[in-house]
Amino acid sequence: MKKIVIMSDNHGDQSMIDYVKEQEQGADYFVHCGDSEAYDIRVLEGFICVKGNNDWSLDLPKEARLNVEGVPIFITHGQYFGYFNRELVMNDLLTRHHCRVLISGHTHMPMFEKDGDFYYINPGSTTLPRGGSDRSYGVLLIDNGKLDFRLKKIQK
What we know:
Strand content: 25-35%
Oligomer: single chain
Number of helices: 2
Order of helices and strands: EHEEEEHEEEEE
Number of strands: 10
CATH superfamily: Metallo-dependent phosphatases
CATH class: Alpha Beta
């Protein structure tokens, strides 16, 4: 079994990055979906990171890929999905990149949805939640191709 810790949208509050690392010691992977606005990039060491729409000064890729136990995962911030036909655009992205799981942020609202063979995951925001959600991050467990996602509420 592999454990992937996912966070997004801490918007300059670097203490959230340290908090998530401390809470989830022993994770196999740490993923940051963008808008860290890190003023010291070293705080993201050990994370697979993508650039968010507010990460102007950070030299990060717009997307990343990860393959965990044979499960292909696509990671991006999510600012290009829009609000109309969002799932259709996400489905197309996964299809084009031959991935099963999409991990993204941007909306500041948690999501875990299954659509056929595809999974859409958003950990919400560790700092500025929206839509009535709590400050959060996520933990994705992959065991022999089976996925289990747990949303973790920030208790700080």
